[in-house]
Amino acid sequence: MSGAAHEENVYDALTEADDPRWAFGSGFSDAETDIVAPVPDGADPADLAEYCLMLGDDALVLSHRLTEWVSNAPELEEEVALANTALDLLGQARVLLSRAGHVEGLVEGRTSRSEDDLAHWRDVAEFRCVGLTEPSDDLDYARAVARLLVFSAWRLALLHRLQGSADPVLAAVAAKGVKEVTYHRDHAARWVLRLGDGTPESHRRMQDALVWVWPHVEELFRTSDVERRLVAAGVAVDPAQTRDEVEAVLDQVLTRATLTRPDVPPTGTIAGRGGRQGVHTEKLEHALVVLQSLARRHPGATW
Questions:
Q1: How far apart are the first and last CA of the chain?
Q2: Which InterPro entries does this entry report, sorted A to Z (predicted)?
């Protein structure tokens, strides 16, 4: 292939695109416009910013954990699948963090922050992700698919309902995310079935993985004060309302996979506070050390 015949190659196209980061982006062509849309009537900007951080941080942190499988997955096809899942979640996180940063600037005494500021320059206590996203799965593939099944079943139930949100960004993320997360859930479910109803060894490891994941399930259905206020404003979804749907999906998959629901206590709270209020384990700190290292080593750099 001669250089003269192909002066314009795929790498040139990347650098000449309107947004050269499109390959890692959200897929929202009008995201810039939506992000600065007015805050819906009846919603407190501080609450909306906090809620966007909750959903954005969930996606960001789990996306990071999934990228740990790149070059480590059991087969090439699965490595691509996990990487694509991570990119889907990263795209959702970018839009949600951008919206959070903009709306935050509408709160008296605060200034707007970019998606990169929020991803790379917040400390652990400023993150609002659920505990399910935090720990490393230690490259145990059964743990990876068990967590992805629980997370995606729950997030899909949220996104279905958020398509009717009064906030245009949340509604847009939900409309696109439903298609993405449906694939994530079904992909994880197929692997849980394959391992659970496979050999005695794969069954044992899949059951052990569920025991690892299950303490974090209860937190998914706890409703914060911020969420309650935004539900009343027609902006947010009460996670407690997703419980029946999520548990029905999980029960169906576990039954077909010949697995049992673990009987383990849920993770506790500190004075009633958990991940949504910035109370995290050291596992999140370890993840952020890696996630934020490049930006903090080279502040202000662009690429």
A1: 28
A2: Aromatic_CoA_ox/epox, Ferritin-like, Ferritin-like_SF, PaaA_PaaC, PaaC
- Domain ranges within the chain, ordered by starting residue: 43-297
Q: DSSP letters along 186-201, please?
A: HHHHHHHHHHHTS-HH
Choose between 300 and 165: higher pLDDT: 165
How is domain 43-297 classified at the architecture level of CATH? Up-down Bundle (1.20)
Tens-place pLDDT, residues 48-71: 999 999 999 999 999 999 999 999
Q: Within 10 Å of residue 75's Cβ, how many Cβ atoms?
A: 8
CB contact set of 207 (below 8 Å; sequence gap of 6+): 196, 259, 260, 262
Q: For the whole model, what pTM was predicted?
A: 0.90
Q: Tens of pLDDT along 119-135?
A: 999 999 999 999 999 99
- CA dist 103 and 241 (Å) reads 26
Cα separations (Å) of 296 from 53, 116, 280, 292?
Answer: 20, 11, 21, 6
**φ/ψ bin of 27: left (φ > 0), alpha (ψ from -120 to 50), beta (otherwise):** left
Q: Among residues 56, 57, 51, 72, which one has the least CA distance to residue 144? A: 72
The Cα 43–Cα 231 span in angstroms is 9
Q: pLDDT tens digit string along 147-183?
A: 999 999 999 999 999 999 999 999 999 999 999 999 9
The 10s digit of each residue's pLDDT in 240-264 is 999 999 999 999 999 999 999 999 9
